[in-house]
């Protein structure tokens, strides 16, 4: 209860003009990046990461939370107007949003998306605030062997969640684990894989790895892309939108029903707690569940607002769910929480069971910002910039990506003041570009790199405590629980053929 009161008390920090400006600016930037096809809120977070050095921890985390929420709802703009999801989490929104746009109801579709996003974001944030302290207390029961099994479970789940490319995801995770071994040994004061190069003694810094993996790789990917969205942009630009057009009819909201919103929120939240699941999986499961229980399943994919509401409620509820494993175990739920984890580590905050009690004052403002962004900034942003949404995609790509490239290179240098780390960011960008080009998911590589040091440390400690007996992972209850959980997930995601993922749906 004390933590919950502390979170709601943190709303007073929004009265500080500096905090308020960074939260609003972060939400605005996140919306723009999520709306532009090819850009993501993850990229926005990676580019702005170096700025966190000049901010207080509370302000930096509040800005990150607003970017996160904006990234989930902003992708619905282009998913609806030009049938190109600005973010992977909005792929299911396009199935009904774009048909509504073709019927002249594009503004209403965006209104439904905003209401779903607002509801999902608020429920996800409230569940996070209410349940995180209890999850933190339960995590105290996890000992050394259990921590290794938990981290191994996280990596396995992220790998097998990449339907159709599990082998490539596994290899990508191995590359990340290998990168994590460079530098000082986790248990002994010796260096590994530095090849006599002193700049590698401290290992690969987190900042250039993140900037290279997301920003540099995205620039190279877009430069190599031949996709032309100019025609679709011109068609959507012909529609004149007014602010009152974004208010959906009350009859449509009643028809969708509170049950649909809430059920989709719960699906999104609990999917978010699974490492690597992400907003796209949450939106897909909520959408398919809504179709399954609907009395008019044939109307979905043809402009049914209920499909938009389910998709957007779920993918924004994922924000709250993904924070749970990141804060209590240091396991990112998706790429954005991986970057938020980087902000915590950079500022000397170690995620774990004690975080909610020892450093609750630093975390509470971030959760307050997450709730504020959902309830206030989502509807306010749609009302203010709704009529100009489509103009976002008209920005010249040559200018846009030149600016991004400059920010990425300068940011990676400013973060460390090291020319080596700047070139490391470029090298990681090239590596991530080729991995993406040949179908290797870079999120598994990044997760392997982030979790690698702790995975190795807990493995070696567990074996040291058991005199090298590997059966210790099956005899300790906490470890056995995660081993069984890994087997269960492997059965349902690999052996038992699941439904198609949203990436395979037409958009």
Automatic annotation (TrEMBL):
Organism, as annotated: Meridianimarinicoccus aquatilis
Transmembrane listed as a keyword: yes
One Pfam entry name: TctA
Highest taxon in the source lineage: Bacteria
Ranges of residues in domain DUF112: 21-447
Entries under PANTHER family matching the protein: TRICARBOXYLIC TRANSPORT PROTEIN
Family annotation (InterPro entries): DUF112_TM
The protein, known as: Tricarboxylate transporter
Record field: transmembrane: 20-48, 60-82, 109-136, 148-164, 170-187, 199-220, 362-386, 398-417, 423-452, 473-494
Keywords: Membrane, Transmembrane, Transmembrane helix
């Amino acid at each position: 209860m004390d933590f919950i009161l502390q979170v709601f008390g943190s709303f007073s920090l929004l009265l500080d003009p500096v905090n308020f400006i960074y939260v609003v600016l972060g939400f605005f930037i996140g919306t723009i990046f999520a709306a532009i096809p090819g850009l993501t809120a993850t990229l926005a977070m990676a580019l702005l990461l170096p700025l966190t050095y000049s901010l207080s921890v509370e302000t930096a985390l509040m800005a990150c939370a607003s970017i996160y929420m904006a990234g989930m709802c902003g992708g619905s703009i282009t998913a609806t107007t030009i049938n190109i999801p600005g973010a992977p989490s909005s792929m299911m929104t396009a199935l009904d949003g774009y048909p509504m746009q073709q019927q002249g109801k594009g503004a209403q579709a965006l209104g439904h998306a905003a209401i779903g996003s607002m509801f999902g974001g608020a429920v996800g944030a409230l569940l996070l605030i209410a349940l995180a302290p209890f999850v933190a207390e339960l995590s105290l029961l996890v000992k050394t062997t259990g921590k290794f099994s938990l981290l191994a479970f996280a990596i396995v789940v992220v790998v097998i969640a990449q339907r159709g490319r599990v082998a490539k995801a596994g290899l990508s995770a191995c590359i990340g684990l290998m990168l994590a071994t460079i530098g000082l040994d986790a248990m002994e004061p010796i260096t590994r894989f530095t090849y006599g190069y002193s700049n590698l003694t401290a290992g690969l810094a987190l900042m250039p790895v993140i900037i290279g993996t997301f920003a540099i790789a995205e620039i190279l990917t877009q430069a190599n892309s031949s996709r032309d969205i100019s025609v679709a942009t011109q068609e959507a630009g012909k529609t004149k939108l007014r602010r009152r057009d974004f208010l959906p009819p009350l009859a449509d909201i009643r028809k969708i029903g509170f049950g649909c919103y809430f059920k989709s929120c719960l699906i999104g939240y609990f999917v978010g707690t699974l490492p690597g699941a992400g907003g796209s999986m949450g939106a897909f499961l909520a959408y398919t569940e809504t179709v399954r229980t609907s009395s008019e399943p044939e109307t979905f994919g043809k402009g049914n607002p209920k499909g938009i509401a389910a998709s957007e409620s779920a993918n924004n509820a994922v924000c709250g769910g993904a924070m749970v494993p990141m804060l209590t175990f240091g396991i990112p739920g998706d790429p954005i929480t991986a970057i938020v984890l980087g902000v915590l580590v950079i500022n000397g905050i170690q995620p774990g069971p004690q975080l909610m009690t020892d450093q609750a004052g630093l975390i509470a403002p971030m959760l307050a910002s997450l709730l504020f962004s959902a309830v206030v900034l989502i509807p306010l942003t749609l009302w203010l910039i709704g009529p100009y949404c489509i103009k976002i995609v008209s920005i010249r790509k040559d200018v846009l990506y030149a600016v991004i490239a400059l920010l990425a290179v300068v940011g990676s240098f400013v973060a460390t003041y090291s020319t080596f780390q700047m070139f490391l960011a470029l090298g990681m960008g090239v590596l991530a570009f080729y991995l993406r080009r040949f179908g290797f998911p870079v999120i598994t590589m990044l997760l392997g790199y982030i979790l690698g040091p702790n995975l190795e440390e807990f493995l070696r400690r567990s074996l040291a405590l058991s005199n090298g007996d590997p059966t210790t992972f099956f005899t300790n209850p906490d470890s056995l629980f995660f081993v069984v959980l890994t087997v269960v997930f492997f059965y349902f995601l690999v052996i038992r053929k699941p439904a198609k993922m949203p990436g395979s749906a037409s958009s």
